[in-house]
Amino acid sequence: MSSLYDRHKAVIPDWIALYYRDPIEITHGEGRHVWDAEGRKYLDFFGGILTTMTAHALPEVTKAVAEQAGRIIHSSTLYLNRPMVELAERVAGLSGIPDARVFFTTSGTEANDAALLLATTYRRSNQILAMRNSYHGRSFSTIGITGNRAWSPTGLSPLQTLYVHGGVRGRGPYAGLTDERFVEACVADLEDMLGQTRAGVAALIAEPIQGVGGFTSPPDGLYAAFRRVLDRHGILWISDEVQTGWGRTGEHFWGWQAHGQAGPPDILTFAKGIGNGMSIGGVVARAEVMNCLDANSISTFGGSPITMAAGLANLSYLLEHDLQGNARRVGGLLIERVRAAAAGVAEVREVRGRGLMIGIELTEPGTDRANPDAATAVLEAARENGLLIGKGGGHNTSTLRIAPPLSLTVAEAEEGAAILEQALGSL
Question: N or C end of the chain: smaller count of CB under 10 Å?
């Protein structure tokens, strides 16, 4: 009989990536651990790409899904939907956006796609400002605003995208500046960019911490400085919180709050962690922006009763157990342990991040040249010793990404750091 890997290759597109030389089938999970089809147990430090945010097989979420499935699984947005309204009320209240409206989708890609629709319609412009090294999804429109070559299979786009500096602190022409000068230079770059546009840019879309880009971020306050410029031109600010939302950064519930001195974004997108594995995405915007569409629209699967029930249970658990505080405390310990583990490794250029969102950038020793082979080697060594991590980075995928469920314990953080130290040492 053919292996599952052989069957996968026979029917799944070549461009669907798989981790590991010998890909694993994850069959079940509990807490911060998962098991593969051969019974091997792993400590999960990637959470299904930051999606299993709370814990695997969280009883509160499992119970909510089962109870809702026993009533009705699906109805569509053509009918009143109590779980959708209840979750929208809570998300609107938490968003920080005044007079907020919430539209649910099934993924972060779809959420960003909807945000682009809103911004371009509201502003009557197809010009979008995006950040270098960014990633916003894999639909035709979101690929067109993704500033990361590895995730941009086409240069065709319905949008005119202009890329500005600022998403990466440690690389590029401004890397050697102080934080204050860095912000000044990026604002000057934005002003210069706007001086080159024909007029009427629709929006700036930005991840407060770039996820696929390798957990890079600017100094706090950069997007507030940008916002002051954008407001003078009437340009909207879209904060892509697909990876930074719900307290993962520890210090803030939303990533934009590190840049909130000029107020909240006009549009906020979210996904991943809110569903704890269920397919939920969404857009929050103030009413005048959200209601600017003058054609009919529905969502067949966005706001599905079963996913909304999961989201409500997961959000309640996250807030009641202060998982944001846990991300801050345990994440602070973990990043210090990771820095200590990486201290003597010549290939480690930088350890960065906040909360439970940590990146380890690997380069060829003594240079700034990306080292994807080293990243792959550490990924494999960690897996061999029972730890699952991710990778990314705009410079040839050479950054290790660490993003465990937010309920991670101190003991598990210590265990994972020890495995990482061994894996890095194998270089």
Answer: N
